[in-house]
Amino acid sequence: MPPLTWTGINWFMINSNNDPAILALRNAAAQVEKKLIKLLPKAVDLEQQVIDAMAYALMAGGKRIRPFLVMESAGLFGVGESSAVRVAAAVECVHTYSLIHDDLPCMDDDDMRRGQPSVHKKFDEATAVLAGDALLTLAFEILSHEETHGDARVRCELISYLARALGVNGMVGGQMFDLLAENQDLDKIRITRLQRMKTGALIVFSGEAGAILGKAESRRRHAIKCYAHDVGLAFQIADDLLDEESNSEEIGKTAGKDAAAGKATLVSLVGNNQARTKADMLTDQAVKHLEVFGHKAENLRNLAKFIINRAS
Asked: Residues in the chain with pLDDT < 50?
């Protein structure tokens, strides 16, 4: 298994400073990574290479924000840790698949991810495609297993909602939108829609997954969904600001690629200051959605502040 890079557990150790958001993220990341190691399939022959590539991408680190959302939202609704961590692991499999494919030469063509060579550079393009495919299908295998939840209807709802978050009205459609939108003039409405699809849909699912697992009533489920929606948009703005203002070593991937490719972002449209103001507003909105949960949602409040502080 490859060692964790600076963007994973080592990143948390360097940057923790007793920050409650980072400490909570670190704890959730450790739980999810332990589960991912157990869930990775075992090879008996030449398929070992694709499994090695899956492990290489999964264990490269990252802040595990999406799995953290699953774990914390599940806690709001009294869901057992064993169920929550399985769904969190499935979400990380999906997210990692998207990163592997996003880095391919036919997509965003990036040679570095999470501070190390992208999967297609470490292995080859065919292995990278297959590793992404395998992680995507592994996610649905995890969700469909009865250990994820004893109620088959809950498992089916998780599968259905995740499939919608990833399809043509979600991540895949958003990636197509993103590719075709290069060097086009997009207004705020279209940029926001692109970001909701490509990045926000999986973040919204991650927040809502806990409510699905806990069979939450509609008002509380709507509150966590709205929180995740606003956090997802703030997260994308923060990422765009980091791409604009940071270097490759700091963000673990090639910096400045969006501008070089002529991609429209809120930052490119309104400038850094206005974009940061928008992200602040979204963060405040997100926190307000959590009022119904009281002190139990403190980690989620801290997460919203952490996301925007990354770009400050």
From this structure: 1-14
Q: What are phi and psi of 60, to 5 degrees?
A: -80, -5
Label residue 248 exposed, middle or buried (CB < 10 Å: 0-12, 13-18, 19+): middle
What is the CATH architecture assignment of 9-309? Orthogonal Bundle (1.10)
Q: What is the pLDDT of residues 213-225, one digit of tens each?
A: 999 999 999 999 9
Supply the pLDDT for residue 10: 43
User: 148: closest CA among 133, 158, 138, 134?
Assistant: 158
Asked if 128 and 100 touch (Cβ cutoff 8 Å), the reply is: yes
Q: What is residue 265's predicted lDDT score, i.e. its pLDDT?
A: 83
Q: Classify burial at 181, counting beta carbons within 10 Å of its beta carbon; exposed 0-12, middle 13-18, buried 19 or more.
A: middle
Confidence (pLDDT) at 250: 52
**Is residue 309 within 8 Å of 22, Cβ to Cβ?**
no
Residue 37 to residues 2, 51, 57, 291, Cα–Cα distance (Å):
12, 11, 12, 36
The closest of 39, 166, 63 to 114, measured between CA atoms, is 63
Q: What DSSP designation does 3 have?
A: P
> What pLDDT does residue 56 have?
97
Place of tokens 């692991």: 89
Residue 1 pLDDT = 34
Which tokens in the block code for residue 65?
A: 């924000």
pTM (2 d.p.): 0.89
Q: Do 205 and 87 form a contact (C-beta atoms < 8 A)? A: no
> Where along the chain do its domains lie?
9-309
Residue 277 tokens read as: 């103001």
Residue-level pLDDT at 76: 96
Which two tokens mark 199?
Answer: 């990045």
Among 197, 149, 141, which Cα is nearest to 170's? 197
Q: Using an 8 Å Cβ cutoff, are 283 and 305 in contact?
A: yes
> What CA–CA distance (Å, rounded) separates 149 from 164?
20
